[in-house]
Amino acid sequence: MKVSHRSTQLWLKTSRSSPKTFICHRCRCLTQKSHFTTTRQARASPEEPQKPDLTTRLRRRIWGTETPPGQKDPYRRLTPEEKAAELLEQESIAEGKQNASQDTATEIARRQSAGEYLPAQNWDGLERIGGATGWWEEEWDRNNVYRGFLTEGVLGEKVANIEDVVRRVAVEILALKQAGGALHEGAQAEWSEGDFMENIDIVKNEDGSFTLREQTPDLIDELVELLQRPPEEEMEIEELSQDIEDPEALGAEEQRLLDEIHAEEEAGEEQTLEENEIPTVATTKTHDPIYLELPLTDIAFKFALIKRLTYLLGTRIPDPKINSSKTLGDVVAYLSEKPKPTKLAEILREIPELKALPNVEIYDTKRNFVQKEMEIGRWKVIEAELKKKGLPIRKSDRLHG
Amino acid sequence: MRRTHLLRWSGTVLTPRTRPNSCLSITFAIQSRNAATATAYANYTPGIDKPVEPSPYESLPSPPPEASRKSARLAALHARLYLSSRIPLETLGRCLVDSTADRHDSFNNSSLAILGNDVLAYHTSELILCRYPRLPSAVILASTSAYIGPYALSDLAKSWGVEAAAVPGGEVDAGLLQFRAIKSDNSESEVRAGVLEKEGKISSKSWKRGVSSLMKQDDFFGEITGREILTPVQSTSIESEYMAAGPGSTYQGACTNFVRAVFGAVYVHAGRQAAKNFFNAHIASRKLEVSKMFVFRAPERDLARLCAREGFEPPVARMISETGRLSVAPVFNVGVFSGKEKLGEATGASLQEARFRAAVSALKGWYLYSPLQVQVPSDVEGDGSKEWTPVLVDGGEVVW
């Protein structure tokens, strides 16, 4: 044990003050005035304006301003009210307002009235996520199937003439742009063919911009009105159809709505396609391919186009493809491209030289024992003999005896 | 020479293919699935766990015409034989189906085989007769058999690369030769043209079998017909238990019928000249040593009869030279002379042997006469542009 000179000092100290009581070094330190400057007491005590602490000085130097961003006290956990006030202050500083802290209350009031984003003080009125409420409807109820944005796929993944669809979507967005509304809001609007498909053209002006030209008057306005119509009516009808169980209890209006639903269903059934038929969007006119040159440099335009397309087709377009598409033609090219065949047999079947050879047979899978025996006709004999002896024919037959 | 009208005979072969349901007489005697639990796990199909779809044609006795287009084997066989494109793949597929595999005559090769056999027999016989006008009947029959008999044709089928299916059926590849096999329990020498001889004995009356009998009563090769044919002696094979009892065929018999059917198909679809070219390419190009096919019992007597008939002086055998008479290997050179002309000459270890051989040589010299330019009747068939030179008609064999 090391004998330090300190112990002698202790003794010396104690002997001076009071020879009977012994106070250890640690306790002595605690009673003395604290030398740590980061404790609360040190901060809380209002002192004369002296040099600000090291942290503040460092931050000021780093940021180069007297009022560096961030909390005044980064190590203190703020209450929600303080957090809201901080945020507001930072925003106002960023905007260059002075005396920001004084306007916080007015700012809150202003934002509430304007409907802008305001960090909440408490959880009243906020959307609740999770918990036990609604678990049956969400997880198990077959009537309450989740309908996402891409679930619908109004036209389906495979459309025969994809360039017409893309052209029509570009027409819609150009129409909205001309009308001056928000471009992406028409994404989930109704899709109707006919006049809109055929009688509106995309033309290129001398200065390189693209505009619409309608064959029939007011067609563009009709289209805009269709796109801006809110899709609420369908929801009501759906909810109503779920509740209807006892037809005798129907009122007049409900009966009318029910008839409407039945009419829609019948109309839908007539339009169902045969199994192998690829759906085609109805259009008879082939349009001038100038629309393929339409540039997608306007981000809002591109976003609206991609949103509407993915909604209609029900499939995503990968981000790299979206980023690399500079014109409408690129989008059409990506959507039109056939997927690469995954199996070797499919690739081989597309080679024309192999197709022409009659002494070559291409199979999808490797020929197994049974198939080889079937080719020479012996398998039926083997099978009959095994059955006769009561032996299992396949591995799986073992388990079932 | 007028064009022969063989093409007319082929009308029945080209009738439309209809398969009335009543003609499907072959039923598979499949036993009902045994419900007993399996106790012995024998070595069976390893690794087969995925379901294999049964072929839709399994219930048919032979593959349907549309299966011919899908078979690579069949297309390869067609190309290998350099068959004209006028001969469809479906017909070649039909040639591969024996009558024992499918009893319906519109779907097997029996009609084409009959036609093809006639085509082959015609061309072979004219070839032999025009090449060797004086050949005796037995040798003619033997050489015909050597050219187009069952052994020759089955060898030909093997050289064409025709493989046999294990068991015939509708699901089998259309390029395989299909027939219902029977075990030949006798040695190969006793199996003739699909004919099984019971217990290895010739059951016919041997005293009746002269040359005239061969020509008149028996089949084209002089083989005896009308015996017990084509029934299995002991059906121990699984196939014969599995399928309903019916006629079967040997592999050799099936190959023979196939080759005949191909010739028939060539004649029907490609014409007379194409059939002749096909014959020349595959049959006539084969080398046959006819001189080795003679068997003499008493050639000196035959030669004497021949000379008497032809008006030559009676043959006399004279020794020409000899050496080593008292040694262990004497050599006698004997010639047979008719007057001053030497008819034949040969050597032997003894005088008798040499005389025998000399007579044989003389007789062979007579029988194997061949004109310098061999012209067959089918050469001048057609528009009549070619001139027919009459072939020597022999006086006949030496008959005592």
UniProtKB/TrEMBL annotation, chain A:
Superkingdom as given in the UniProt entry: Eukaryota
Keyword Mitochondrion: yes
Keywords: Mitochondrion, Ribonucleoprotein, Ribosomal protein
Gene Ontology CC entries for this record: mitochondrion; ribonucleoprotein complex; ribosome
Main location: mitochondrion
Transmembrane segments: none
A Pfam family that the UniProt record links to this protein: Ribosomal_L50
Location in or out of the cell: Mitochondrion
Entry annotated with the keyword Acetylation: no
Family statement: Belongs to the mitochondrion-specific ribosomal protein mL50 family.
Protein name listed in UniProt: Large ribosomal subunit protein mL50
Provenance organism: Gomphillus americanus
TrEMBL record, chain B:
Domain (RNase III) ranges: 74-162
Chain segments annotated as transmembrane: none
Entry-linked Pfam families: DSRM_MRPL44 (PF22892)
Listed GO MF terms: double-stranded RNA binding; ribonuclease III activity; structural constituent of ribosome
Gene Ontology cellular-component annotations: mitochondrion
SMART domains tied to this protein: RIBOc (SM00535)
Main location class: mitochondrion
Protein keywords: Mitochondrion, Ribonucleoprotein, Ribosomal protein, RNA-binding
A Gene Ontology BP annotation from the UniProt entry: RNA processing
InterPro entries: Ribosomal_mL44_DSRM_fung, Ribosomal_mL44_DSRM_metazoa, RNase_III_dom, RNase_III_sf
Cell compartment(s), UniProt: Mitochondrion
Similarity section: Belongs to the ribonuclease III family. Mitochondrion-specific ribosomal protein mL44 subfamily.
Protein name per its UniProtKB record: Large ribosomal subunit protein mL44
Source species of the chain: Gomphillus americanus
Higher taxonomy: Eukaryota, Fungi, Dikarya, Ascomycota, Pezizomycotina
